[in-house]
Design goal:
Layout lengths: L3 H20 L2 E7 L5 H14 L5 E7 L4 H14 L3 E5 L3 H13 L4 E4 L10 E5 L1 H15 L4 E7 L5 H14 L5 E8 L4 H13 L6 E4 L2 H13 L6 E6 L7 H7 L4 E4 L4 H12 L7 E4 L3 E3 L3 H133 L4 H31 L8 E4 H19 L2 E6 L5 E4 L1 H18 L5 E9 L10 E8 L6 H4 L11 H13 L4
Helix pairs in contact: 1-11, 2-10, 3-4, 5-6, 7-8, 9-11, 11-12, 13-14
The structure holds beta-D-fructofuranose.
The site of beta-D-fructofuranose (FRU) has 15 residues, from helix 2 and strand 9.
């Protein structure tokens, strides 16, 4: 099974590779000197058609409106925008050269199209061979003029290389015909209206001419229209560009307005092909001079027909292109959908893995729990078994204890009669006073211990009664002061022997209370016996009797507090909580020894 981590990283790799693949776009900046004429429109159209074959290329075009400064700014802007390649058709070469050099030197490839710059700082050049066009135009004019005539030359912008090169070629060709002269050379700045203005001036100046050679068809048309207005259109008119369409040179030739035009390809298609090669590091030609051809009455119609065909084919291609684009976009959306589905599937896989893992962990935990449950059950069973056993043992023990007690009580009961029989004659002996003092003392000791034994047996019987809940309180009104003094009296001799200061303190002589004489006697006796047990020689034991208001809410208005204090070591803190536990003793062995000792002395 694929681990969660692995499946997540696979998904990430898939995503990243898709992102890299999808984002690999090249931005082409295209600085066009102008787009105000059909030649430039054609160039742009050709570029767009060609770009359709390279979806990774994206072109941003800026139109400088035949303004050098604007074009410099346009290129700066494109640079800032971040471009991978620059196509530039400089308005005029000199003013544009530094900015083109800057782009080239910054490492961005530069393709110069149509018009050139004055340095070699470009990656490739695409354009017609202007020198050759000029030369061919010269030869053509010479042929038309039969080697003799007057020519008006209408150039383009003087600073643009096509104008310079065409002029050079034209002049060079005409230099072979001494009877041909250029009577006037004016600049129509590549546009119709300037050409018209210049032509009007020439006509106004009455300059005689046989042929007008304009450096493009637009200017030739302008000149021709002015000439026509002035009724002198019956001259030769030559132009350059040879564009297709109603306002193109081919149509002008067919109409008879122009005698000839020289094809000047825009190079738009070629430029994009070179862009692709440069960006993909494929081999490419640096100088791409495009062929020219003369279009005159002999071939204009054929060329038009061919161009028609080419254009209709192009239209079909464009249609197919749009169909293809539609399909591509459909494919892309399907691909995106597929990717989304894959991502969701991947997430599902991750989720399933997580759920399965959680499920497995749950099963494990459940098993563990089940095991623990079983263990607990087993232990519980054991515990309840042990508890049952314990109950059984306890019951048996209780039964045994009861039986022992019963036996013991019975025996004790049996002791009472002989003991009473011992005490009676002993008392007689003591009272007869016939015996020497020493014997009397012995009788007394025997008497006291017999009484003690009798009392112990009685206590044992009481305990049994208590156990069987048959003991009853037998209260009557007695003087508690007299009661305590009597007990005090019985301990005085013992106190003297132990060298213990034993006192009873009471402000009153008589306080009558309701109490069970016998039981309270046992309580006080027990407390004093313990006090004597743990008070060393030289110590002090005190019985205090205080009459006071009840500390807590009580049934009577007054209470009597009996406090027995001693200077013994006291009961350790940890044993205090057990003082009301039945039979609880701090040190049993010592206690027993003490009991035995006291018994010998006839006190306990
Ligand atoms: C279009 C144009 C063409 C000419 C070329 C020269 O703007 O004037 O007619 O051939 O530019 O660069």
């Amino acid at each position: 099974m694929i681990s969660t981590k692995r499946s997540i990283s696979l998904l990430l790799i898939f995503f990243m590779s898709y992102a890299v693949y999808a984002d690999k776009k090249y931005i082409i900046g295209f600085s066009q000197c102008t787009s105000a004429d059909i030649w430039r429109e054609t160039m742009h159209r050709e570029m767009l058609i060609e770009l359709a074959f390279y979806p990774e290329l994206e072109m941003i075009m800026k139109d400088a409106n035949s303004d050098n400064n604007q074009q410099i700014k346009d290129i700066e802007d494109l640079l800032k925008q971040g471009i991978d390649l620059l196509i530039v058709s400089p308005n005029e070469s000199k003013p544009l050269t530094p900015i083109v050099e800057k782009v080239f030197n910054s490492g961005i490839p530069v393709i110069v199209i149509d018009r050139n710059i004055t340095t070699e700082a470009y990656t490739a050049f695409v354009g017609g061979n202007n020198y050759l066009i000029g030369k061919e135009a010269g030869n053509y004019a010479a042929r038309l003029l039969n080697g003799k005539g007057r020519i008006i030359e209408i150039t383009g912008l003087p600073g643009s290389t096509p104008s310079i090169d065409r002029h050079r070629g034209f002049q060079e060709s005409l230099s072979r015909f001494p009877d041909i002269s250029i009577v006037k050379s004016v600049s129509g700045k590549w546009n119709w209206s300037d050409a018209k203005t210049e032509m009007q001036k020439i006509i106004t100046e009455k300059i005689d001419f046989d042929l007008v050679f304009a450096y493009n068809d637009v200017m030739a048309n302008g000149a021709h229209s002015v000439a026509k207005e002035n009724g002198i259109e019956n001259k030769y008119y030559l132009g350059i560009d040879g564009l297709y369409g109603e306002e193109g040179g081919i149509q002008y030739v067919i109409n008879g307005m122009l005698d000839a035009t020289f094809l000047y390809p825009t190079g738009g298609e070629k430029a994009i092909q070179i862009v692709h090669k440069i960006l993909k590091n494929l081999p490419f030609e640096r100088e791409n001079l495009l062929e020219t051809v003369v279009i005159d009455s002999t071939n204009a119609k054929i060329i038009k027909l061919q161009t028609d065909q080419v254009l209709s084919l192009q239209g079909k291609i464009e249609n197919q292109n749009s169909v293809l684009e539609e399909q591509i976009s459909r494919f892309q959306s399907q691909r995106d959908l597929l990717i989304l589905s894959l991502v969701l599937l991947g997430l599902n896989v991750v989720l399933i893995v997580l759920v399965l893992r959680a499920f497995r962990n749950k099963i494990k935990a459940n098993k563990k729990l089940e095991l623990q449950k079983q263990q607990i059950e087993r232990r519980n069973n054991e515990i309840s078994k042990q508890r049952d056993q314990l109950i059984e043992i306890t019951e048996k023990l209780e039964e045994a204890t009861k039986a022992k007690l019963r036996f013991f009580t019975n025996i004790s009961h049996e002791f009472r009669t002989p003991l009473t029989l011992i005490v009676g004659p002993l008392e007689d002996l003591i009272q007869s006073r016939e015996f020497p003092v020493e014997l009397q003392k012995q009788f007394n000791l025997m008497h006291r211990n017999s009484l003690r034994l009798l009392r112990m047996i009685n206590q044992l019987m009481d305990f049994r009664k208590l156990e069987n809940e048959k003991m009853k309180l037998q209260a009557a009104e007695y003087n508690i002061v007299a009661f305590l003094k009597e007990i005090h009296e019985s301990f005085v001799e013992h106190a003297n022997k132990k060298n213990i200061d034993f006192q009873i303190q009471s402000k009153e002589d008589k306080i009558f209370l309701w109490f069970d004489w016998d039981k309270l006697d046992k309580v006080i006796f027990n407390l004093l016996a313990n006090a004597f047990k743990f008070t060393p020689a030289g110590g002090k034991i005190t019985i205090q009797l205080v009459k006071e208001k009840p500390v807590v809410k009580s049934i009577s208005d007054e209470e009597v507090l009996i406090r027995i204090t001693d200077t013994g070591r006291g009961i350790p803190k940890e044993h205090l909580i057990h003082i009301f536990d039945r039979f609880y003793q701090v040190e049993q062995s010592q206690d027993l020894q003490e009991q035995a000792r006291l018994a010998l002395q006839g006190i306990y």
